[in-house]
Amino acid sequence: MESGELVQRFAEWCGVRPAVFSAPGRVNLIGEHTDYNDGFVMPSAIGLGTRVAMSSREDRRLVIRSGQFPGEFEFDLDDLPAGGAGEWCDYVVGVAAVLRQNGHALNGANLLVQGEVPIGAGLSSSAAIEVASALALMGLNGIALPMAEVARLCQRCENIFIGARVGIMDQFVSCLGRAGHALLLDCRSLEFELIPIPDRVRMVVCNTMVKHEHASGEYNRRREECEEGVRVLAQWYPEIRALRDVSPDQLVLHADDIPKKIFRRCRHVVEENARVQEGGRRLRAGDLNGFGELMRASHRSLRDLYEVSCRELDVMAEAAEGLPGYYGGRMTGGGFGGCTLNLVEANDAEAFAGLIAERYKRATGIEPDVYICSASDGAVEINRAV
């Protein structure tokens, strides 16, 4: 649904022209499961996003509709729920609840949400709806916050209201992404560097079309395993606060002191942080082949050490090898299904997309969705209310 169509549909519902806010989904070039370990990541915003159309109401109700799903949800702003109900609207009302908890006054509003980020694909549809909703609610109520604080607010929504113990990466790049750039982010300090992605390359995102049911529980379990690793290592290194503080040498020195599964999880995170830093150097130098090799190493680590891949992701990653213009790729997102991300020469991207889809379908019987993307800007207001 284009913005004009969204505005028209909202006007038919509420009789007024709304303000419209947009926030993008993201891909993560490298640095997976490092963000909640205070580590380093390198995401990029993409051209698939979520739009929220909004106008004020005279009462204290928050009324939410979707352009994709039936039904209407209504909430009392003075009696918002403490947690999610397992509905898509949780990501909207959760942001409202966190704004209220932070002392911001909110007025009644109608919201119409339209998302084009595939749900469950690992492209962060949740962050896109959170950030777009936050900007909409802030815009309506005259709340001005730095974009980094908006990202923190949306992360708190997902951590506390939704119950998913995600890091800051998704919300941060949805807020602060820039067209043509990857964002190398220190998830502890929130310092970041924008690194140009060469114009001659495209990000080809391949959706496996599967999302295994245990994904959310396994995601939280991985975080608990990392925290257990920190507790064990703190016996020798009391200064460490997160796996970000552990060097490869320190980890190897205590390999026999850590349960084997916990060691594998820790090894992935420690080595992945190093890959992100090296990836920054490679991308700055325009070394796409070297960056591609780091992406391959990341996928192997996620598969073998962190154990968050699945057959379909591995098949998709393997299907890319040997195709024209391919530099490298890996699974992107939390895992257990979703998408792979592939760096491909722009002139070869269309052919690559067709060939990888054929290979994947031949191996799995599943028709994938393939998106050819470039790095995009972060969240914006795209239409003012009249």
Summarize the topology.
Elements: H1 3-14, E1 19-30, E2 40-56, E3 61-66, E4 72-76, H2 90-101, E5 109-115, H3 125-141, H4 147-162, H5 169-176, E6 181-186, E7 192-196, E8 201-211, H6 215-233, H7 248-253, H8 260-284, H9 288-304, H10 311-320, E9 326-332, E10 337-345, H11 349-364, E11 369-373, E12 380-383
Description:
There is one protein chain. The protein is an alpha+beta fold. 41% of the residues lie in helices and 24% in strands. The protein has 11 helices and 12 strands. It has helices at residues 3-14, 90-101, 125-141, 147-162, 169-176, 215-233, 248-253, 260-284, 288-304, 311-320, 349-364, and strands at 19-30, 40-56, 61-66, 72-76, 109-115, 181-186, 192-196, 201-211, 326-332, 337-345, 369-373, 380-383. The strands form 2 sheets. Strands 1, 2, 3, 4, 5, 6, 7 and 12 form an 8-stranded mixed beta sheet that branches. It has a 4-stranded antiparallel beta sheet with strand order 9-10-8-11. Helix 3 (125-141) crosses helix 5. The longest helix is centred in the last third of the chain and has 25 residues, at 260-284. The mean pLDDT is 94.
